[in-house]
Amino acid sequence: MKRFFNTAGPCQSDIHYTLDPLARLSSVRELVDSRKYFILHAPRQVGKTTTMISFVQTLNQEGKYIALYMNVESAQTTRNRVEAANKTFLSVMDSMIRYYLPKMYWPSPECTQITDWEDGFRTFLSRWCTELPKPLVLFIDEADALIGDSLLSLLRQLRSGYSQRPDGFPHSVALIGLRDIRDYRIYSESEKRFVIGGSAFNIKDKSLTISNFTLEDVRNLYAMHTAETGQQFTDAAVEMIFDQSQGQPWLVNALGRELCFGGHKVPDNRTIVPEDVYGAGEILIQRRDTHIDHLADKLTEPRVMRVVERILAGGDNGFTEGDAGYNDDVQYVKDLGLIRNTPEGLAISNPIYREVVPRHLTWAREQFWASDPAWYIGADGKLNMENVLARFFAFYKENGEVMEKSKYYPESAHHLMFMAWLQRIVNGGGYIRREYAAGLGFIDMVVEFNGDKFIFELKTDRNYKPDNALDQIARYIRRMNQRQGYLMVFRKKITDVEKVGERELIEYQGLKVHLIWL
């Protein structure tokens, strides 16, 4: 069977194009050898499970340790029922023991004769480790899926047995999840208080994370497809894949799957070029597979909204870096893989996610707007942008006040409204590319349609400074190799609808800037 790009579950090298999973996590062996208990955290679908399963197999083949992987997500339903959680832990562990380990290492019946299930997981581990001829290394996946007292119980039982390692308790333990344990705020129903995860698991030595693929990783992964099928990628196409995904492993594989195996696959006898990559990215954005849909669904969570709104609006939204609640929210959204730090400030993690955010936030609204693209396209197939703007101004006069009362993202509602209007028009005939970050104070957009490029910069009146704004859009116009652009300034409140669409043509540094107030 030919191998393919994997986008569902852990990679298996016999059927998937797979890089060495441990190459991105070189320090894990030292932690195991040093009897450390540690955290491995990273966003969804970056390779945590693939890496840990591979490491378990490697350790067992080497023979120094007995290594076991287990996933405790099924115990999430136990919530604060500690006894039920411990029974689930043991049930999962029994299944994994029988799957991964030879019969000689299976626990005796005495190990599972538990009388106190409040402490049942620790009791089992203590008894089993005394029976094993070699130290046990345990990897517990989806630990942060647990809730309340069930999670506290797991952490405290591991802490309780820690001093008996390696003969009477696991030699080394890794907890695997989305977030670092220090970021857990766990509500204990039994104690009626919040417990900080770091205090419940203060035996943790270190927190590790798995980085995204590098450009060289992407080259090597796609070279496997070339070696097995003969299909080539231009260097520019591979660089485009890296640029659009920023090395996020699921996106890298999803783009490869779409380009090489999907419904719009490039023929095997044709070299893949950057235009193909743009098309594949657009398909992923529109189709919203599970991974992208999961991230999009998070956008209406209050703590996610609080951070992403700042990025969309380009300002601080009244929050300061010293605001502990805001800082916690930032870390949470980083752990989801949705944002990252850049020199310009917090930004959406990659260009594909950057397109997903505004489209998801405006999709439902978009469906109710009468905006037939044919109204704006001439006989030559070109987009009449002046017609687009005129119709938007009329629409905005009637509906702009509604956006001011938006429940979600009120600070950026006007920006989103305009982007949605453009999106509906260009769908199927062009592309919109957006750049925005928390520290920029604006959104840059380029609309590409039938060979033409239209440059936009969106600002709010509270962060509009004429000289800075003109400098900013001038740089963007030149970077896009154009001669003119639109600088659109949105007022926080519409006080006079007759002023909506006021415009001025400014000659600036040899360029034409259409300044428009809304």
Task: Give a brief outline of the structure.
The protein has 518 residues and is α/β, with parallel strands linked by helices. Helices cover 42% and strands 17% of the residues. It has helices at 28-33, 48-62, 82-100, 120-131, 148-161, 197-200, 215-229, 235-245, 249-260, 274-287, 290-297, 302-313, 324-335, 351-366, 385-404, 413-426, 466-479; strands at 37-41, 66-71, 136-141, 172-177, 185-188, 193-196, 204-208, 339-342, 345-348, 430-436, 443-449, 452-460, 484-490, 502-508, 511-517.
Can you put this structure into words, describing what you see?
Helices cover 42% and strands 17% of the residues. With 518 residues, the protein is an alpha/beta fold. A six-stranded mixed sheet has the order 10-11-12-13-15-14, with helices on both faces. The chain has a five-stranded parallel sheet with strand order 2-3-4-1-7. Strand 12, helix 17 and strand 13 form a beta-alpha-beta unit. The protein is elongated. The model has no long low-confidence stretch (mean pLDDT 87).
